Amino acid sequence: GQSLEQPSEVTAVEGAIVQINCTYQTSGFYGLSWYQQHDGGAPTFLSYNALDGLEETGRFSSFLSRSDSYGYLLLQELQMKDSASYFCAVRDRASGTYKYIFGTGTRLKVLA
Amino acid sequence: EPEVTQTPSHQVTQMGQEVILRCVPISNHLYFYWYRQILGQKVEFLVSFYNNEISEKSEIFDDQFSVERPDGSNFTLKIRSTKLEDSAMYFCAGAAGVSTGELFFGEGSRLTVL
Protein backbone atom coordinates (compact mmCIF):
# COMPACT_ATOMS: atom_id res chain seq x y z
CA GLY A 1 0.00 0.00 0.00
CA GLN A 2 0.89 3.67 0.11
CA SER A 3 1.50 5.76 3.20
CA LEU A 4 2.96 9.16 4.00
CA GLU A 5 3.74 10.13 7.56
CA GLN A 6 4.23 13.63 8.94
CA PRO A 7 4.37 15.08 12.46
CA SER A 8 0.90 16.17 13.49
CA GLU A 9 1.89 19.55 14.88
CA VAL A 10 4.87 21.90 15.00
CA THR A 11 5.15 25.17 16.91
CA ALA A 12 7.72 27.91 16.31
CA VAL A 13 8.15 31.63 16.89
CA GLU A 14 8.15 34.42 14.33
CA GLY A 15 11.46 34.76 12.55
CA ALA A 16 12.54 31.21 13.30
CA ILE A 17 13.25 28.32 10.93
CA VAL A 18 11.14 25.18 11.00
CA GLN A 19 11.47 21.84 9.24
CA ILE A 20 8.51 19.57 8.48
CA ASN A 21 9.44 15.99 7.69
CA CYS A 22 7.69 13.48 5.48
CA THR A 23 8.43 9.78 5.14
CA TYR A 24 6.66 7.80 2.48
CA GLN A 25 6.03 4.29 1.26
CA THR A 26 4.84 3.82 -2.28
CA SER A 27 5.62 1.46 -5.14
CA GLY A 28 5.32 3.97 -7.99
CA PHE A 29 7.15 7.07 -6.77
CA TYR A 30 7.67 9.90 -9.24
CA GLY A 31 8.10 12.93 -7.02
CA LEU A 32 7.20 14.72 -3.80
CA SER A 33 5.14 17.92 -3.61
CA TRP A 34 4.31 20.21 -0.73
CA TYR A 35 1.07 22.09 -0.20
CA GLN A 36 -0.09 24.71 2.26
CA GLN A 37 -3.67 24.84 3.48
CA HIS A 38 -5.14 27.57 5.66
CA ASP A 39 -8.23 26.72 7.71
CA GLY A 40 -11.27 26.65 5.45
CA GLY A 41 -9.18 27.05 2.33
CA ALA A 42 -7.93 24.91 -0.51
CA PRO A 43 -4.46 23.37 -0.67
CA THR A 44 -2.03 25.58 -2.57
CA PHE A 45 1.14 24.31 -4.18
CA LEU A 46 4.48 25.25 -2.64
CA SER A 47 7.24 23.07 -4.07
CA TYR A 48 8.08 19.87 -5.92
CA ASN A 49 11.08 17.53 -5.97
CA ALA A 50 11.44 14.84 -8.60
CA LEU A 51 15.16 14.34 -7.98
CA ASP A 52 17.29 14.14 -4.86
CA GLY A 53 18.44 17.40 -3.39
CA LEU A 54 17.22 20.80 -2.35
CA GLU A 55 14.78 23.07 -4.20
CA GLU A 56 14.55 26.68 -3.03
CA THR A 57 11.61 28.99 -3.60
CA GLY A 58 11.93 32.18 -1.63
CA ARG A 59 11.54 31.49 2.09
CA PHE A 60 10.54 27.90 1.39
CA SER A 61 12.89 25.04 0.49
CA SER A 62 12.13 21.39 -0.05
CA PHE A 63 14.46 18.43 0.11
CA LEU A 64 14.17 14.88 -1.18
CA SER A 65 16.15 11.70 -0.59
CA ARG A 66 14.66 8.92 -2.68
CA SER A 67 16.96 6.29 -1.22
CA ASP A 68 15.64 7.10 2.26
CA SER A 69 12.01 7.65 1.11
CA TYR A 70 12.19 10.93 2.95
CA GLY A 71 11.68 14.59 2.32
CA TYR A 72 11.23 17.80 4.23
CA LEU A 73 9.91 21.30 3.85
CA LEU A 74 12.00 24.07 5.36
CA LEU A 75 10.36 27.38 6.18
CA GLN A 76 12.66 30.29 7.00
CA GLU A 77 11.95 33.70 8.55
CA LEU A 78 8.62 32.48 9.82
CA GLN A 79 5.71 34.90 9.67
CA MET A 80 2.35 34.74 11.42
CA LYS A 81 0.66 34.13 8.06
CA ASP A 82 2.61 30.86 7.76
CA SER A 83 0.34 29.36 10.42
CA ALA A 84 -1.45 26.68 8.41
CA SER A 85 -1.45 22.97 7.69
CA TYR A 86 1.26 21.59 5.42
CA PHE A 87 0.86 18.41 3.41
CA CYS A 88 3.40 16.39 1.51
CA ALA A 89 2.05 14.55 -1.51
CA VAL A 90 3.62 11.79 -3.55
CA ARG A 91 3.16 11.76 -7.29
CA ASP A 92 2.51 8.09 -7.75
CA ARG A 93 2.13 5.83 -10.75
CA ALA A 94 1.82 2.44 -9.06
CA SER A 95 -1.36 1.60 -10.96
CA GLY A 96 -0.21 2.92 -14.34
CA THR A 97 -1.77 6.37 -14.10
CA TYR A 98 -0.57 9.44 -12.27
CA LYS A 99 -2.21 10.46 -9.04
CA TYR A 100 -1.18 12.41 -5.97
CA ILE A 101 -1.40 10.80 -2.55
CA PHE A 102 -1.39 13.20 0.37
CA GLY A 103 0.27 12.82 3.74
CA THR A 104 -1.34 13.10 7.14
CA GLY A 105 -0.60 16.82 7.36
CA THR A 106 1.32 18.97 9.84
CA ARG A 107 -0.32 21.89 11.59
CA LEU A 108 2.19 24.71 12.02
CA LYS A 109 1.55 27.30 14.70
CA VAL A 110 3.66 30.44 14.54
CA LEU A 111 3.81 32.38 17.80
CA ALA A 112 4.53 36.08 18.13
CA GLU B 1 -5.09 34.40 -13.31
CA PRO B 2 -7.17 31.36 -14.29
CA GLU B 3 -8.67 29.35 -11.50
CA VAL B 4 -10.66 26.21 -10.81
CA THR B 5 -14.25 27.04 -9.90
CA GLN B 6 -16.48 24.80 -7.80
CA THR B 7 -20.18 25.04 -7.02
CA PRO B 8 -21.95 24.98 -4.68
CA SER B 9 -19.65 26.23 -1.96
CA HIS B 10 -21.82 24.55 0.65
CA GLN B 11 -24.64 22.05 0.36
CA VAL B 12 -26.76 20.56 3.10
CA THR B 13 -28.70 17.42 2.25
CA GLN B 14 -30.65 14.65 3.89
CA MET B 15 -29.22 11.15 4.11
CA GLY B 16 -30.20 9.11 1.06
CA GLN B 17 -30.51 12.10 -1.26
CA GLU B 18 -28.51 12.56 -4.44
CA VAL B 19 -25.95 15.33 -4.63
CA ILE B 20 -24.20 16.80 -7.64
CA LEU B 21 -21.05 18.87 -7.19
CA ARG B 22 -19.73 20.88 -10.11
CA CYS B 23 -16.28 21.96 -11.22
CA VAL B 24 -15.05 24.22 -13.99
CA PRO B 25 -11.38 23.43 -14.57
CA ILE B 26 -8.70 25.64 -16.04
CA SER B 27 -9.03 25.44 -19.80
CA ASN B 28 -5.57 24.11 -20.71
CA HIS B 29 -5.53 21.40 -18.07
CA LEU B 30 -5.53 17.78 -19.15
CA TYR B 31 -5.51 15.83 -15.87
CA PHE B 32 -8.36 16.14 -13.40
CA TYR B 33 -8.92 14.86 -9.92
CA TRP B 34 -11.51 14.80 -7.19
CA TYR B 35 -10.39 14.70 -3.59
CA ARG B 36 -12.27 14.84 -0.33
CA GLN B 37 -11.23 16.05 3.09
CA ILE B 38 -13.13 15.19 6.23
CA LEU B 39 -12.82 18.05 8.72
CA GLY B 40 -9.37 18.12 10.29
CA GLN B 41 -8.12 15.13 8.35
CA LYS B 42 -5.94 14.57 5.32
CA VAL B 43 -6.81 15.11 1.67
CA GLU B 44 -8.00 11.79 0.24
CA PHE B 45 -7.84 10.78 -3.41
CA LEU B 46 -11.18 9.80 -4.93
CA VAL B 47 -10.79 9.61 -8.70
CA SER B 48 -8.65 10.78 -11.60
CA PHE B 49 -9.87 11.65 -15.07
CA TYR B 50 -7.86 11.90 -18.28
CA ASN B 51 -8.73 11.87 -21.94
CA ASN B 52 -12.45 11.95 -21.21
CA GLU B 53 -12.49 8.86 -19.06
CA ILE B 54 -11.78 7.76 -15.51
CA SER B 55 -8.15 6.70 -15.23
CA GLU B 56 -8.18 5.53 -11.63
CA LYS B 57 -10.56 5.19 -8.69
CA SER B 58 -9.79 4.81 -5.01
CA GLU B 59 -11.48 2.36 -2.68
CA ILE B 60 -13.62 5.25 -1.41
CA PHE B 61 -15.04 5.80 -4.91
CA ASP B 62 -17.64 3.04 -4.78
CA ASP B 63 -20.79 2.55 -6.82
CA GLN B 64 -22.46 5.49 -5.09
CA PHE B 65 -20.04 7.88 -6.81
CA SER B 66 -19.81 8.86 -10.45
CA VAL B 67 -17.92 11.46 -12.44
CA GLU B 68 -19.07 12.95 -15.71
CA ARG B 69 -17.94 15.60 -18.15
CA PRO B 70 -21.31 16.39 -19.71
CA ASP B 71 -20.27 19.21 -22.04
CA GLY B 72 -16.59 18.52 -22.61
CA SER B 73 -15.42 21.19 -20.20
CA ASN B 74 -17.22 21.11 -16.85
CA PHE B 75 -17.09 18.19 -14.46
CA THR B 76 -19.65 16.80 -12.09
CA LEU B 77 -19.19 14.52 -9.10
CA LYS B 78 -22.43 12.74 -8.23
CA ILE B 79 -23.16 10.92 -5.02
CA ARG B 80 -26.28 8.85 -5.62
CA SER B 81 -27.46 8.14 -2.10
CA THR B 82 -25.61 10.16 0.49
CA LYS B 83 -24.55 8.75 3.85
CA LEU B 84 -23.63 10.61 7.01
CA GLU B 85 -19.99 9.72 6.47
CA ASP B 86 -19.99 11.50 3.10
CA SER B 87 -19.96 14.80 4.98
CA ALA B 88 -16.70 16.40 3.92
CA MET B 89 -15.10 19.08 1.77
CA TYR B 90 -14.83 17.94 -1.84
CA PHE B 91 -12.06 19.43 -3.94
CA CYS B 92 -11.69 19.41 -7.68
CA ALA B 93 -8.10 19.75 -8.93
CA GLY B 94 -6.37 19.88 -12.26
CA ALA B 95 -2.96 19.84 -13.86
CA ALA B 96 -1.67 20.88 -17.27
CA GLY B 97 0.94 18.15 -17.21
CA VAL B 98 2.54 15.70 -14.84
CA SER B 99 6.13 16.90 -14.71
CA THR B 100 5.72 19.93 -12.45
CA GLY B 101 4.12 18.14 -9.52
CA GLU B 102 1.59 20.94 -9.20
CA LEU B 103 -2.13 20.54 -8.77
CA PHE B 104 -4.46 23.53 -8.96
CA PHE B 105 -7.30 23.14 -6.48
CA GLY B 106 -10.71 24.73 -6.47
CA GLU B 107 -12.02 26.30 -3.27
CA GLY B 108 -14.04 23.19 -2.55
CA SER B 109 -17.66 22.24 -1.96
CA ARG B 110 -18.60 21.56 1.64
CA LEU B 111 -21.16 18.76 1.87
CA THR B 112 -23.13 18.29 5.06
CA VAL B 113 -25.32 15.18 5.26
CA LEU B 114 -27.97 15.19 7.99
> What is the global morphology of chain A?
globular
Q: Which percent range fits the helix content of chain B? A: under 10%
Query: Which percent range describes the beta-strand content of chain A?
Result: over 45%
Give a short account of the largest sheet of chain A. 6 strands, mixed
Written description of the protein model:
The complex is a heterodimer of chains A (112) and B (114). Chain A is globular, with a radius of gyration of 14 Å. Helix content of chain A is 0%, strand content 60%. The model of chain A has no long low-confidence stretch (mean pLDDT 94). With 112 residues, chain A is an all-beta fold. Chain A has no helices and eleven strands. In chain A, a hairpin with a 2-residue loop joins β6 and β7. Chain B is mainly β. In chain B, strands 2, 4, 5, 6, 9, 10 and 11 form a seven-stranded mixed β-sheet that branches. In chain B, a hairpin with a 6-residue loop joins β7 and β8. Chain B is globular. The termini of chain B are far apart. In chain B, 37% of the residues are buried. The model of chain B has no long low-confidence stretch (mean pLDDT 92). The chains are: A mainly beta (112), B mainly beta (114). Chains A and B meet through β4, β5, β9 and β10 of A and β4, β5 and β10 of B.
Any chance you could write out the topology, listing elements then pairs?
The complex is a heterodimer of chains A (112) and B (114).
Chain A: E1 3-5, E2 9-13, E3 18-25, E4 29-37, E5 44-49, E6 53-57, E7 60-65, E8 70-75, E9 84-92, E10 99-102, E11 106-111
Chain B: E1 5-7, E2 10-13, E3 19-24, E4 31-37, E5 44-50, E6 53-57, E7 65-68, E8 75-79, E9 88-95, E10 104-105, E11 109-113
Parallel strand pairs in B: 2-11
Antiparallel strand pairs in B: 1-3, 3-8, 4-5, 4-9, 5-6, 7-8, 9-10, 9-11
